[in-house]
């Protein structure tokens, strides 16, 4: 009686021509994060402003998000280029209100802290991009 393959063995090893010694095909996979409208409305701010907004969001939920809404009116770029500046401003105000109103049950506070961390991450990408594209003196 011939032993049957164990459950842990791969099906590829049982197929002819697909043994374990075949080289990998070298497929490149690209992953893109799809953001909702509220997350995409987070502005790319200068790093010190983003840190201040994170600090404000940590101690007063929604306050840093509220302050970041005004940076949109000052010309900060977002991931929503097709929307008007006022629409993006009101999306940030809505996110701040959600954070303030749900802070009572801790959900808004946690969301506020994560929102501030996203601001700092975007600001670090913004500052790195600004260094790469600035002309050297």
Structural description of this entry:
With 137 residues, the chain is mainly alpha-helical. It has a domain at 46-133. The chain has six helices and no strands. It has helices spanning 11-14, 37-40, 47-59, 63-73, 85-101, 107-133. Helix 3 packs antiparallel against helix 4 (63-73).
The biggest beta sheet is recorded as: none
Radius of gyration: 24 Å
Output mean pLDDT.
82
Percentage of residues in helical conformation:
55-70%
The oligomeric status of these chains comes to single chain
Shape: globular
Task: Provide the β-strand percentage band.
Answer: under 5%
Query: How far apart are the termini?
Result: 80 Å
What is the number of E strands? 0
| DSSP summary: helix tally | 6
Along the chain, the helix and strand elements come as HHHHHH
What ranges have pLDDT less than 50 throughout 5 or more consecutive residues? Answer: 7-15
Structural features:
mainly alpha, transmembrane, 0% strand, 6 helices, transmembrane helix, 137 residues, SPEC3/Stum, membrane
In short, what is this structure?
With 137 residues, this protein is an all-alpha fold. Helix content is 55%, strand content 0%. It is a multi-pass membrane protein.
